[in-house]
Amino acid sequence: MDHEIGEGQGQPPASSQRSVSKSLDLLNLLLIDVNGAIKPYLNVYLYVHRGWDDASVGLVSTVAGIVGIVAQTPIGTTIDAVRDKRVILLGALVALSLATLLIALFPNFWSVLVASCVLAAVGGMLSPAVAALTLGLFPAGKLARRFGRNAALERTGNVAIAALIGLVGWLFPDRAVFLLVPACAIVSAAALYAIPRRAIDARRARGGGEGEAEDAPAGWRSLLTNRPLVVFAACVGLFHFANAPLLTLVAQESGRVRPDWSSVIVSVCIIGAQAVMVPMGLIVGRRAERWGRKPLLVIGFAALPVRALLYLAWRDPYWLIAVQCLDGIGAGLLSAMKPLVMADITRGTGRYNAAHGLIGTVQGAGASLSFVIAGTLVQTAGFDAAYLACAAAAAVALAVLVALMPETASERPRSGPAAWLRAMLPGKA
Fold it and tell me: How far is residue 124's CA from residue 426's CA, in Å, rounded to a whole number?
């Protein structure tokens, strides 16, 4: 894969390009999804092995969730301000390692609360920080393929690490799982610093554009009045409002039938969805330039209301689990497309990571609110009402995307679904 070296260094040798690409590959494989893998295990650990009650676990989860939402925008602004993006990622790896070691060594309330807040705040910045690093390593014409590759490798790593967590939790003492984070962090740091600083264009890594003079980043007003960014944030917030509670609902409903298999059901759903996300990342890498961004987003957003309605077709636990694995289509396409669309929207502003933080805040707020509403609906009207509400929210997200979101690709899509979508597309961002 070709890329441009930053700081005016010229084109690197082919061997250097391959080395940088392999290091980035390894980094994506080894970055643990702490919010999707470690935190669910932490809740089980606190319940089963430490004897915590529901109120204590719920309080830790709630406080950590609020901290994670509030921290996203300041963290994004910090990533933009630091020229060497490797320093940001290294700091995140150290913080995550210390947090998990704190849990393993001192599993009391205050230690776990502090560590959980760190996991929530820092865990949410890993993917945006890797996206910023990628933005600084590759020119605009190479980003679609590289972001798609990043997503596929990240999901492959998540599947392998989730299986490893289950194996370690079964073979070794209950706290051994938390030692996986510092172990992976050491190898991740080695891969990170195998990428030379001179290969990273600091201006481009914060959304400064290609070959432009060094300018001060755009003001916050320019972000808040950026119509494509506002529309995209609304779409992402609505998507996660509809999607976030579905796994919990499936686990609760299936767990009523097979309570002894509740943890296995959750693991199968997570690993199944992550496995489906791998080819979604590859599709984005191969088709985002030819088809454009919007058609792939429409496919991903359309999959969500269909999935929510499929839960109503049959109440068998195996059916519910199979449908939940389809989460990999919607969430997989969105997670692979988001950094690419953000790069399109924010190019030239110098606020790529700050914009990522704003969308992360909206996404987290939507997901948190949906858990409360879905839980209330289950208690008052049953699971069908909760699934219908999620389907309705997902349909609204799809409608907003189709009607208001512009195509953000710099060139008109050359083939594929864009042909039938072109009539409904507003002007380019």
Answer: 32
Alpha-carbon distance of 336 to 349, in angstroms, equals 22
Closest CA to 228 of 393, 362, 79, 355: 355
* Domain count of the fold of the chain: 2
- pLDDT > 70? residue 426: no
Range of the domain at 97: 1-206
Looking at residue 1, its pLDDT comes to 40
**DSSP string computed for 72-111:** HHHHHHHHHH-S-HHHHHHHHHHHHHHHHHHHHH--SHHH
Q: Compute the C-alpha angle 380/383/387, nearest 5°.
A: 115
- The stretch 344-371 carries a mean pLDDT of 90
Q: Are residues 406 and 280 both part of a single domain?
A: yes
Domain assignment of residue 358, yes or no: yes
Residue 279 Cα to chain centre, angstroms: 16
Q: Measuring CA to CA, which residue among 336, 38, 393 is closest to residue 182?
A: 38
Same domain, 192 and 250: no
For residue 43, is pLDDT > 80? no
Which helix (H) or strand (E) segment holds residue 244: the answer is none
Name the nearest CA neighbour of 242 among 128, 114, 399: 399
Cα–Cα distance measured from residue 234 to residue 110, given in angstroms and rounded to the nearest whole number: 35
Domain shared by 283 and 176, yes or no = no
Both 185 and 269 in one domain: the answer is no
122 in the same domain as 225: no
Query: Which of 206, 230, 258 delimits the end of a domain?
Result: 206
- Reference 268, options 162, 340, 168; nearest CA is 162
- Based on the fold, state whether residues 127 and 192 are members of the same structural domain: yes
SS3 content of the chain, % helix, strand, coil (to 5): 80, 0, 20
Q: Which residue has the tokens 């999804």?
A: 33
Q: Hey, how many other C-beta atoms are within 10 angstroms of the C-beta on 392? A: 14
Q: Is 4 helix (H, G, I), strand (E, B) or coil?
A: coil
Same domain as 312, residue 264: yes
What pTM was estimated for this model as a whole? 0.85
In a domain, 309, yes or no: yes
